[in-house]
Amino acid sequence: MTRTTPPRPADLEAAFPELASLARTATRLHPRPGIPSPQDSSIGGPLLWPASEPWPHCGEVAHHTSPIPLMSVADARLRQRLAAARDSRAAARPSREGWGYNPYTPEERAILEQIQAQDKPEGPVSMLPVAQLYLRDVPGLRPPEGSDLLQVLWCPFEHDDGMPTTALFWRTAAAVSDILLAPPEPAAIYGVFYVPEPCLVHPEEVIEYPSALELGKEMRERLERWAVTEFGIEYLDLCIPPGCKVGGYINWGMTDAYPTPCPTCGTPTEPLLTISGKEWYFDVHHWIPYEDQADNLAWGPGQDGPARPTRICVSDDNAQIIQICPASPEHPHTQIMQ
Ligand SMILES: [Zn+2]
Ligand SMILES: [Zn+2]
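That is the input. Now the predicted structure with zinc ion docked in place:
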């Protein structure tokens, strides 16, 4: 099933012709729970990983491990399944009344109580697949010459920058014949939100405009005033869609916009992949694909439901933006949070 983003309620280029030259194409990934195979583009799905190649590990020792008890990957998946079942029961209730009261059943509670907290893992931590994207599904990937597959893994612990550390691999899919079928898993992880629900993706290209924080003061003030007075909406809800995407702009706001040069050569880096748990906000309708709008209404404002298909939540529900150097694929990627 495809996903289609409705048009914005406001025609930004008609009102501000100077935005036309700044428009960028991004690809919303629209992850939805499924059973991806190594041959599929996915979020949290199995990777087309060569059996002969070592699986990536994180050697960092200063992992943040509080205040959440550590748990195994299997227990994290169990907890997510129980939470999804509980939330679905709430969504099926005919009345919106008592929306916040949404308990586990005694049976579910008994299962949850048996989940054992795990000790902090000793030694390197196996990384977890976050994203696998084939060029055929996401033409906007712009891989290095000869590659047609991007694989991103992360260490399921928060590091000093407040995010999981990521590892990036570009491959040629046809060169992988012997696939690693049972990759290692970390013995313990930090919270369920860094174990993505396996999702198939439904890529859709959309047009983005820069965050107001990347524009001059005069333009920024005009844009923000116009959006609020004409449409009762903030410009940041018009310029850039939320959720997982490839390319496009950074929706600054947690901090002011700042330069992010390549650590090797100083060239300004470009956003490659944005990982974000919330695919849309309940009442910002123009970012909710037509195909999901009925489902969104069934859930109501207090619950994530279909708006958080990956069940990811980076730090305080921010976006993790992986950036690469346009000058060379050999230069290390960087990441920021917004
Ligand atoms: Zn780590
Ligand atoms: Zn560089």
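The CA atoms of residues 285 and 293 lie 8 Å apart.
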